[in-house]
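Feature request, filed as a ticket because there's no other form

It would be nice if the structure record came with a short human-readable summary line next to the tokens. Right now we just get the raw output. Example of a typical job, pasted below so the devs can see what we mean:
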Amino acid sequence: MSDFTKKQLAGSLCCPVLCFLWGLIRSLYDLSWGAEFSGKGIFRMSYLAAVLVGGIISAVLTLGFKIHTEYYLDKRLIVIAVVIVFHGIVSRFMFSNTVILLVMYMAVSAAALVVEFVKIHDVNTDRGERTVLILSDPIIYWTAYWLVLYIA
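Raw output as currently delivered:
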């Protein structure tokens, strides 16, 4: 594992930054509306996990151990974009039935996670890369958020 060029560093830190920003923005948005972190607000723990685990710990691992994950970035961004687009379409047309909406969200998220673990990680992916790829996967945090949000 060698030092990073600027392009490699940006590619390796893209998903940790995405996780960090999603968690931070969601937290600030909810707190601005007077949200609390107890009772039904427990799903907000996914924000904290995204910020701490997906963002900070992943970035520290990437920088501290010089773990290069930029090779996987384009495939990961495609999967993330597909999930975002699909969830946007589903929520626009199926907002009246939350059970169907939850099932659709979970099906898409599960399919995206399978694609990421089977297609994106390959035989050359070492343990350090795999750890950072899993910890900084925003779909995991979004899935936890949606699951607890609709079940609670």
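Something like this underneath would help us a lot:
Residues 23 and 48 are 6 Å apart (CA to CA).
The longest helix spans residues 6-32.
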